[in-house]
Design a protein that fits this description.
Length: 274
Amino acid sequence: MANIRVKDWTKEKLQGIRNAESHSSYDSVIKTLLKDRELAKYADDDSNTAIDESIKSQDADIDKMFDDLTVLAELTGSHDDVLFLWCPNCGNELVHLTVERPLGRSVFEMECQRCLTHLDSQAIVAIELRYPLEQKMIEGQLQADLKSCVVDYWDRTLKGVTTDTVETEPSAARLVWQFDQYHKQFDWDWPTAVPTVSFVPGVTYRNTATDERIEAVEAVTEHRNALDSYKVRRSTAGGDVISDQLDSSTIVDWIVNRELVVTEQSIGTTKLTT
């Protein structure tokens, strides 16, 4: 019979368990403890499996463009417990994190050390290990993917705002202002197939609800935390251009309702009338 040397403290603990649970021997005590350990391990594995299934279920509910690129604001968890956070403006890695599951939601802000853009969770892209990062960098595709991920998120977020007017949904106006600020800082050419999230001087838009062409000329207000009102040029059915001014609430309404798209049509050569 094999003998195992243990400390007096360990022997006292084993003896206490033996007496409390009426074991016939110390061998029985140790076997029970080993079984409990195995059960605990299986329970932990089941818990992790349940979390993985929950993450997969939540991911399936989000109809986003990339499986392994996610804007931080809508990230529900990580499949590998490791995240790489990237700046979509300059394609710089901000930080890599080891995260717990499920992922807790909190305010997250930081400044990109390369382009010095102040970013929050609405404009930081989380990359998971399964994304072919090195291959994308070699192919020169990473920057385009980061931009597409953010554009897709901003578009889906505004589509999800259930309001027809900003008067009943103040957060909608806040979102538009925030996305507008980021878009102008990033200086991106907005894709014509996606309704705009911003109103940029020098760009001509088409209102898909009215088929009207509107050129943004310049801001006429200087709001610090809200979209500005703008001087614009509207094209008429006869081809003339009318100078006008749009209130910020009107612009926000159009953007929230996803009615404005960027158009390549130029109205700069038509006659300006008042």
